[in-house]
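Input chain follows. Return structure tokens only.
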Amino acid sequence: MKKVISLFIIALIASLAFVGCQKITENYIKGYEDNPLLPSTAPAIKFFAGAQGAFIEFYEGFPSQLAAVWAQQATGADRQFAGFDVYNITANDFSNDWFLAYTRVLTNLRIAQQKAQEEGLLNLYGVAKILEGLHMGTVAALWGDVPYSEAAQPEKTLTPKYDNQIDVYNAAIAAIDEGIQVLTQNPASLAQDLYSTGGSTAKWIKVGYSAKARLLMHLARKDNYPSAILNQVIQAAQQGITSTQRASAGYGTDDFVFTHGTTQAGNMNLWYSFIVLDRAGYLRALKCFAVKMLGARGAAESGRFNYYFTADSNDLRTTTGGAYAVSAYFPVIRASETLLILAEANARLGNTTEAVNYLNQARTYNNNIFGTTLSNYTVGDFPTQADLLQAIYNEMYLALMHNVEVFNFLRRIDYQVQYTVGNQVFRLTPKTGTRFPQRLFYPQSEVSTNPNIPWKQVASDLYEKTRVNGGTR
């Protein structure tokens, strides 16, 4: 019995000593628990800034360069890009962009949204939802079926399921709608914003409506452009980015663009960095289809031609005043795109007068922004609906110059872009073979780690249409 009591006393003393030491330790390290150089958390606005920066890398980076090459608005001239020019591409080429899309853009947006709600910053929450909708709509357009409902939730799964492309579109549009609704009720400006929106919630609402119109037009293609969806397109686009006026910075007053500085590996234009500093000679013009199309349109297009291309038609313009100067802005949504969406939707509904009016407004935008001297069309210039749609297609092709969306647009209209010289019609045709690319490959990094990949990819999958464009997967 004495032995038991003795052991109890020893245990009690040890316990008290441990508690005492623990208390002393807590007092000693109080205030020093967090390493200021390795913060474990940050405010919502910082996560949003991280998402914005990653979205710039994604949207302005390789996907837009590849889109330009496949749209024949630029030419892949050397090494890997020479292969891309003739559709020689593999799953390994997309691992970085997939990582950007999910780990850096979507994940940061989700964290920013959660923290914005906790901090009572509902305006930031609304903007983050709009950017999420635009971003994930773009991801779905490029890849088809993609993770979304289970994505960016590492606490639940590291191998998210793949959602049907149509479901992702609808969810992306729902995110945009939620963002618009929240901003309407919480209109205070953001404290920080990396884009041309400058923190203005009114401008972000316009971004949301234009993004929604863009995605709805993708969906409309699947069911051969039903009037119900076209009317939704018009309703959204009319509230979107439509100003034809030029801002002092050179883009439209409502345009959604990435603004740039001159710091390498910092804030400079990513195309300038790629063309001039990183991979000189890889991406050129070399009298590509877009160069020839602008040339065929004559002196009226000289302003736009000189903005994008060098005088000899062989390179993209990277000097001061050019589209790819060191600090040149990069467009995500121009007013001309939204105006041409309105023109196309009205043309398909048989509203010819309205369609021609919006087409002319897009041309006015070009005159104001690029110094073109394009004249107005009249209804009589288009004997048939097909003639009007062709004119709209041609304008949209040029309006989306070097934008990721040009790849989505061309697939939606089955690459039906053309120009004429005299009586001869020149159509966009594949660089090799008889088929155009229809999607991006799932990256090898995803193929190797996620068993939910919908199918085993083969080289010919590059030419398989996605669901919104009439495909089955």
